[in-house]
């Protein structure tokens, strides 16, 4: 499945693709940025690669820049919504793709998809020092609900 935005597309990462990404087994049409994947995406990719059954909607996605087709990052849910309808997500872009609004659009697409699939609340967190990521979350309607010495936690009700 692919979620299309004006500047980015979110493409579902299958367990087989996750395995190839980890190994850097790039094939024609993959078009991964040389810096993708980044270190903090490897553990979630390993978990996905080990799955035999995957959640079709609340999974991991490649963030592909539509202008040149290059995969420049990832967006992912940490599983389906819990019994309260809350879904957690994370995202990241290679440094060369940051600052152009791509992360904001990727988060927008992901949240719109989560809402369409029944999630009622979205939560995310970011490092305290990552002001750019905090702005992405705030642009997408998430509000700060907690702050620790190292992280800022955000929440948003997903309503039409």
Describe this structure in words.
A hairpin with an 8-residue loop joins β4 and β5. Strands 1-2-3-4-5-6-8-7 form an eight-stranded mixed sheet. α1 packs across α2. It is of the alpha+beta class and 160 residues long. The longest helix is centred in the C-terminal third of the chain and has 15 residues.
The percentage of residues in β strands lies in 25-35%
The tally of beta strands, per DSSP, is: 8
With helices defined by DSSP (H or I, 4 residues minimum), what is the helix count?
Answer: 4
Q: N-to-C terminal Cα separation, in Å?
A: 22 Å
Measured on Cα atoms, how large is the radius of gyration?
15 Å
Strands side by side in the biggest sheet? 1-2-3-4-5-6-8-7
Helical amount: 25-40%
What is the N-to-C order of secondary-structure elements (H for helix, E for strand)? EEHHEEEHEHEE
Oligomeric grouping of the chains: single chain
Overall, the morphology is: globular
Mean pLDDT: 95
> Would you tell me the structural class of the helices and strands?
alpha+beta
Q: Which stretches are low in confidence, meaning pLDDT under 50 for 5 or more residues running?
A: none
**Biggest sheet features:** 8 strands, mixed
